[in-house]
Amino acid sequence: MRDRNFDDIAEKFSRNIYGTTKGQLRQTILWQDLDKLLADFGDRKLRVLDAGGGEGQTAILMAQRGHHVTLCDLSAEMVARAQRAAEEKGVSDNMHFIHCAAQDIPQHLETQVDLILFHAVLEWVAEPQAVLKTLWSMLCPGGALSLMFYNANGLLMRNVLVGNFGYVQQGMYKKKRRTLSPDFPREPQQVYGWLEEIGWEITGKTGVRVFHDYLRDKQKQHDCLDALTEIETRYCRQEPYLSLGRYIHVTTRKPQSKDNL
């Protein structure tokens, strides 16, 4: 199986994800975690890798905070969009752009990095454990991984609530690959196990959109976004809500004493 390349649907992806309350809420909750993670590093400027960074929304915000960010993506169109956005924001000097898959990034980086962002990518790759091991090799001891993945629990809950019983009973198998629905939704416990087997220490877990996508009245996603964001923030880091998020954000550390694989 081949990993998903977004060259053919980059505009649709941007419009349907980043241009909606889904994307706004995702970024808000994500940055609550990232700001805390950055504070743990102190004031020093970090070497950051945004692997599969897409249009660069998160990478650009990192660069605006003064960190040096390398963004790579399998999609040449996404990389071009990220470059244009960085130029418009005036942070191009703090960024480096590479057109390659996350698995191939060791061929392009000469040194390890302090922080790796790997957001909404794991659910699109055919060999997730291999990718995670590659990222481990590129992270310096004491460094951190910010991993956000599409949650199979959330997919099941959403489909049951809208009455797609046959689809759920058949295992939620995806028939069409050329869509925005991820190819490989991930089971949270399996992902946590992969991380710990490799050697990462999990430091935090957050559900992303633990209520938003389940609202019966979709208009409230727009009209009540501030109130919804406050409620999401209150509950998204506690069970059972955490494990029902449409995405789960995991923060991890690579121990100082661990050797690279």
UniProtKB/TrEMBL annotation:
GO molecular function, one term: tRNA (5-carboxymethoxyuridine(34)-5-O)-methyltransferase activity
Domain Methyltransferase type, residue spans: 49-146
Signal peptide (from-to): none
GO BP terms, alphabetized: methylation; tRNA modification
CDD domains the UniProt entry points to: AdoMet_MTases
Pfam families named among the record's database cross-references: Methyltransf_11
Swiss-Prot/TrEMBL keywords: Methyltransferase, S-adenosyl-L-methionine, Transferase, tRNA processing
Keyword presence, S-adenosyl-L-methionine: yes
Enzyme Commission number, as recorded: 2.1.1.-
InterPro entries: Cmo5U_methylTrfase, Methyltransf_11, SAM-dependent_MTases_sf
Binding positions for S-adenosyl-L-methionine per the UniProt entry: R26, G52, G53, D73, A102, Q103, H119
Enzyme class at the top of the EC tree: transferase
HAMAP family: tRNA_methyltr_CmoM
Annotated family: Belongs to the class I-like SAM-binding methyltransferase superfamily. CmoM family.
Described purpose of this protein according to its UniProt entry: Catalyzes the methylation of 5-carboxymethoxyuridine (cmo5U) to form 5-methoxycarbonylmethoxyuridine (mcmo5U) at position 34 in tRNAs.
NCBIfam families: PRK11036.1 (NF008264)
Name the UniProt record assigns to this protein: tRNA 5-carboxymethoxyuridine methyltransferase
Organism encoding this protein: Enterobacter soli
Lineage summary: Bacteria, Pseudomonadati, Pseudomonadota, Gammaproteobacteria, Enterobacterales
Encoding gene (name): cmoM
